[in-house]
Amino acid sequence: MSVIRHKLVQVLECVQGELEDHRLAINENTQEQAQTYEMLGAVNRRLDALAERLDELTLLVKGQKAQPEFCVQPLSGKEKEVFSVLYRLTETQPYASYEQVARKSLLSREQVCAAIGSMLEKGVPLVKRHDGNAVFVRVDAVFREVQAKKNVLGLDAPLTCWMRC
User: Fold this and answer.
1) Together in a domain, 55 and 83
2) What is the torsion angle, in degrees rounded to the nearest 10, for the CA atoms of residue 81, residue 144, residue 128 and residue 80?
3) Nearest to 86, CA basis, from 155, 120, 162, 137
4) 136 shares a domain with 107
5) Backbone dihedral region of 128: left (phi > 0), alpha (psi from -120 to 50 degrees) or beta?
6) N or C: which end of the chain has fewer CB within 10 A?
7) Beta carbons of 97 and 134 less than 8 angstroms apart
8) Does pTM top 0.70 for this prediction?
9) pLDDT tens track of the chain, all 165 residues?
């Protein structure tokens, strides 16, 4: 009986070893598939960006590139101040938090939040991003360029802003 038991243990150990090898191979394949999926996603994003650029170049060559039109209602003084601070902060970083804007503008977070909400309602193209409980915001890239060239919002650089920044 012990011989049979010993043989059975050997067979089961052999099967267990083969199953472990098979599990490891499956895990490696899963990791390879995940990496391939991520790579394909990156390639897809690059192809989309390239297609957009190609479309833009085609329109430019044909002379049909339309300048974006922004229909923005006039901003209050506080909104202009918040916009100016946000504009400057996002020159050196991709997004700014409400807290950063509040510190630079010497306003409360609630005032900044209200001003940004009001600017969005008035048609100012801002991009918001949520990361957990924190909210980050930036000026839309196309609007930033148009604002720099045409001063759509009618901003002026008051001395008080220069002293704070």
Assistant:
1) no
2) 10
3) 137
4) yes
5) beta
6) N
7) yes
8) no
9) 788 888 888 989 999 999 998 888 888 888 888 889 899 989 989 998 898 888 888 877 876 655 667 788 999 999 999 999 999 999 999 999 999 999 999 999 999 999 999 999 999 999 999 888 888 999 998 888 888 888 878 887 543 344 344
Q: Tokens at residue 32, please?
A: 């390879």
Which pLDDT value is given to residue 1? Answer: 75
Domain, as residue range, for 82: 77-164
The domain total for the chain is 2
SS3 content of the chain, % helix, strand, coil (to 5): 70, 10, 25
Closest CA to 147 of 50, 94, 75, 97: 75
Distance CA 91, CA 112 (A): 19
- Joined together, the tokens standing for residue 10 give 């050997």
72 falls within a domain: no
Structure tokens at 128: 């918001």
Instruction: Please classify residue 144 by burial: count the beta carbons closer than 10 Å to its beta carbon, then call 0-12 exposed, 13-18 middle and 19+ buried.
Output: middle
Query: What sign does the CA torsion over 71, 73, 74, 76 have?
Result: negative
Q: Which residue has the tokens 């999926």?
A: 37
Asked if 81 and 133 sit in the same domain, the reply is yes
